[in-house]
TrEMBL record:
It is found in: Cytoplasm. The keyword Metal-binding applies. GO terms for molecular function: GTP binding; GTPase activity; magnesium ion binding; translation elongation factor activity. Its main location: cytoplasm. Mg(2+) binds at residue 19. GO terms for cellular component: cytoplasm. It catalyses: GTP + H2O = GDP + phosphate + H(+). GTP binds at residues 12-19, 89-93, 144-147. Its EC number is 3.6.5.3. The gene is tef1a1. This is Elongation factor 1-alpha.
Amino acid sequence: MSERHQNLAVIGHVDHGKSTLVGRLLYETGSVPEHVIEQHREEAEEKGKGGFEFAYVMDNLAEERERGVTIDIAHQEFTTDEYDFTIVDCPGHRDFVKNMITGASQADNAVLVVAADDGVAPQTQEHVFLARTLGIDELIIGVNKMDVVDYKESTYDDVVDEVTQLLKQVQFNTDDASFIPISAFEGDNIADASDNTPWYSEETLLEALNDLPEPQPPTDAPLRLPIQDVYTISGIGTVPVGRIETGVMNIGDDVSFQPSDVGGEVKTIEMHHEEVPKAEPGDNVGFNVRGIGKDDIRRGDVCGPADEPPSVAETFQAQVVVMQHPSVITAGYTPVFHAHTSQVACTIESIDKKMDPSSGEVAEENPDFIQSGDAAVVTIRPQKPLSIEPSSEIPELGSFAIRDMGQTIAAGKVLDVNEK
Ligand code: GDP
């Protein structure tokens, strides 16, 4: 076990090999229980297919895939020489934006998977854009499925060029990105340097993971716990559940739920089916608050200390980057904003400034419209109460994605909140 911890997002276009890569990382780092591998090894040998243990991991993932749309390889853990890694997100085929908002903002760094035979695809763009907006520090780009393109260096170079161009487009510092030709399926350049890529002499994927910068220590922000669901459990009563983003929750604390604007004393906290006296950032908890009924609170509420309650925005100012919009965005536009566990229609009340993306300077005051590729400061009015925080104070609760027509239109960071 390592003392140091990293939350890692695995992002990339569907079918480019994210699940396979996570399976491979679990396998190579010995994170699949030995008895499970042993069992599969025996089965494989009986069938005359020795050396297929890795297939076991993948079979399991395939089974999971059949059961649901999203392969739940999020929350898997593996340990390298330097870090304990938790996969905080691996976007499935749907809902990946919600995952990115709740996932990438917690992720310290990310692995971007790009299939060598397909190159940059729509979700590659979308994920890179969100990773950049939501504050991923470093990207490791696994150019995957090198086996499919016969380990051709020129194909690899083409993909590297294409991704580099994309990174520049979204102003991601390309010094913070490293490229590795891999095959998640065959295991090339994952744990050991591959003989199939003699033209590549830099890091393997595990070496690159070990070399990631250490994450910033968590902020000393007050308790913020976005509510994911609210259950009624016999013998206990109303049990809101969610993940603590910042701060600590203790039994006996006086808490407040916003924007529902109710509160009370924490009676019990449960984690992994056990009662605990307190819970910390990253903990998924269910808890019970004296006097709170099932209809008093809902998904999208944020729980915080009664004396430092979560902010509720009448309006807020934010910096947004428009990723893709078929036409132009003008004041009055009212798409759905996704922030932590909340989804609320919000009106862009005014477009205050357009920024020059390369310099960060104001390019135009009060522009009439913004469009794809533009960065701007805008004032936003939620159509229903929304709890959100300035990104400078509580970054975990300070970012959002704007969705419309089934796509991510823009993403942003909250600059200022004007409370009710
Ligand atoms: P995801 O949607 O990004 O999670 O992609 P998957 O991991 O489910 O992979 C999609 C398909 O590509 C599956 O059939 C995998 O077996 C295959 N695949 C993934 N990685 C590789 C690779 O490195 N080489 C080859 N040949 N196939 C791969």
